[in-house]
Structure formats: structure tokens, C-alpha cells
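Let's study my pick:
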Amino acid sequence: MNLFAPANEHPQLKEDFKRQQLAEIEKEFEIDKFKIKTVTEFAHYSYPTTHKPTRETIRQAIQFNNHFRRENNILIMGPSGTGKEVIAEIIAYDARAPLGGRLKSLNMAGLTDSLFESQLFGYVPGAFTGALSKGSKGFLQSVGSGIAFLDEIGELPLSQQAKILRVIQSREVMPVGAVEPVKIDCRFIFATNRDLLEMVKAGTFREDLYFRISQLILRTYSLKERGSGEIRRIADHMCKFYDFTPLDADEYIPVEWVELGNVRAIYNLLLQRDVQDLKFPRYEPVQAS
């Protein structure tokens, strides 16, 4: 028996190799099954809905959870208060990770020109007056190999858009005061309540940045689009989650009460109902004919 012959010339070695391959495939399959099961449970609990377009958004978010390549960027578009960050959390969810996720969030609308680079890209010791003596990694380096969720991307002025574009293209940041760039390893999810294509046409949002951040697009929908049944479903879910007083069977929240704010508006109304005795309207009883 020639021990140096290829494995496929030795039946026993070939059989052992096949068994090892099968065991690895089965292990990977079990991990995938576990990931899909846990993220699906998390999604259905975090974003209860029967609205078909919203269910499709959630289905795609679950799919992206298992197939989100580092070179692909995701843009979540929808009105304020419709759960864009929850969709990002579904994409990032990992039941085995601390607190169930790999997502770090930053609201871009809150960054002033003076803070933009130091907060996002970090800075070296002594970079400016008031800088920490040890310097700072900045947001994007702190994400590590996780997912950076950059909300309100449509609020950035053109000067800041150019800097973000460079980071996405080069996968590196230049900390304030540094002479060499630093590589980053995170993936990106962006969100906006603005119509970015209209902003591109108006010249207030860079076309090249739009097509960089929108390789994959998900949409969330207003409660007006989702209907009164969805409002009741979300309200009942919130009553259980936040321990609000449950709604009576004939109570309802009018659609016009939540046109602005959407899901956030439902929370505020339930809080006001419990704390400030806000009265909800009631359906008229059906008269027997």
C-alpha cells in the first residue's frame, strides 16, 4: 500500500474524507437553521404585521441576515417612526452575540461640521484642543467587524457626503491629526425618510453616493398605508411589552392621530392614555335589526 498515493486511491481514506465533509456540511446546515429560526422569531416579535408589503420587507431583512456581504450596502427608506432601525436590527441579529446583535447606530443629523470627522473617524492624541490624551477610535473603527447603521443619511450637507463616499469606496478612515489612514472592517446600513432620488435631481444629494449606498433597498410603510388593523395590532403588542393598560375591544386609535410619528405616535398615545387619562374613541355598538 502506497501511503503517499492520492486519497482517492485508498478506499478507506476516501470514505473517511467523505464522512468528514458530510459532518462539516451537516454542522453548517444546523448553524444556518438555527440562525434562520432565531432571526425569524426575533423579527416576528419585534415587527408584528400582516401588511403584505411590510411582510416582504421583513422576509428580505431575514434573508439579508444570512447573506449580507461586506461589499454590499443596504438603504432602508421610509417615513419617520416606521421602524427602520428595527429592520436594521433584524438584519444584524445574532442570538449568539452579546445583547443579540452586531449593530451600532449613529444619527447623522446630529453631527455638526466640527464634530463630524472626530466622531466618525476618530482622532490621534493632541489632535485639537480638548482632545482626549489617548485619542479616540471614532464610531466606524469602534464597530469593528459588525454593522454600522447610519440613520438620517439624507440630512448630510454635500461637504460631508463627499467624506462618507470616500470611506465607503476605500474602506478606510483618516483620523483627525493622523498622517496614515486606518482600515475599517464594518458593513453599512443607511436609512432615510427623505426621497434621495429627488434630492439627487435637485442637486442636494450626490448621485455617486446614492448609488453606492443603495445597492440593496428595503422600504418601510406608514401606518396610513398599513391600515387601522395594523394600528390595533401594534397597540396591543405595545400594551404587553410596556405594561400599558390593555385596550378595550371597542376602543380604537384613529389613523389621523398617527399620521405623523407613526409607531412612535402610538407609544405616546398609550402613555398619555395611562398617565393623563386620554380618552380613545369607541366603535358604535351594532344595532340589532
About this structure: Strands lie at 74-77, 103-107, 147-151, 172-173, 182-183, 187-192, 216-219. The chain is about 45% helix and 10% strand.
